[in-house]
Design brief:
Order of helices and strands: EHEEEEEHEHEHEEEHHH
Radius of gyration: 16 Å
Shape: globular
Largest sheet: 7 strands, mixed
CATH architecture: 3-Layer(aba) Sandwich
CATH topology: Rossmann fold
Strand order of the largest sheet: 5-2-1-6-7-11-10
Structural class: alpha/beta
Number of helices: 7
């Protein structure tokens, strides 16, 4: 079972790594990181690199497509190479998925028109400009297309997907293996819950 994860400059690392940590446990899983060129691709803010195993021209099919997001995604919404590759992968995939603003790339490739989908809360308007309907859920299944909300929700999506691909017991075993038992110290993980001071700091730039 080939799981293809495209990488691009200024992707968000956890968008890719979180689901990777889950899906690598699936029986028969073969995970391949894909990019324009093989070699290291850096996240934002360019401190972490993941090595791409293959180029877009070398991977012509996959069983699961997992598209991460990140600040770099917005600059690729008209990138014919990436969007064309996403469309071709979707034609033969069993599952086409995204995390965070990766859904913008699915939408730009024409895959979310008329469908409900989710994305990072700061990208709702862009998602809907491509004809998708935003849903404020952490994970959204639409037939064989699955979208996850911002960053950390990719782990939730991957566990839900693992249950569909294998079974619930397998997904639960994977959850136990990675000790995924979220108990956040603060209840500030969504715009509806975060205190105004946190929103203001984020607006100014945390760093």
């Amino acid at each position: 079972m080939r799981i293809a994860i495209p990488l691009f400059d200024r992707f968000t690392a956890l968008d890719a790594v979180g689901p990777y940590e889950v899906l690598k446990f699936l029986p028969g899983a073969e995970i391949v990181f894909v990019a324009t060129e093989p070699g290291p691709v850096r996240d934002v803010p360019k401190w972490l690199a993941i090595s791409a195993d293959a180029t877009f021209t070398e991977i012509d099919a996959c069983d699961v497509l997992l598209v991460p997001g990140g600040p770099g995604a917005r600059g690729l919404l008209k990138d014919e190479e990436l969007l064309g590759w996403i469309g071709r992968m979707h034609e033969g995939s069993s599952w086409t998925t995204s995390v965070c603003t990766g859904s913008l790339l699915l939408a730009a490739a024409g895959l979310l028109t008329g469908l409900s989908a989710t994305t990072h809360w700061a990208a709702i308007d862009v998602l809907e400009s491509f004809g998708a309907t935003y849903t404020a859920e952490r994970v959204v299944f639409q037939d064989r297309i699955v979208t996850a909300a911002g960053v950390s929700s990719g782990i939730d999506m991957a566990l839900a997907l693992a249950a569909h691909i294998a079974d619930q017991t397998t997904a639960e075993a994977i959850q136990l293996a990675i000790e995924y038992d979220p108990q956040p110290p603060f209840d500030a993980g969504s715009p509806a819950k975060a205190p105004q001071a946190a929103k203001d700091l984020l607006a100014r730039g945390i760093r």
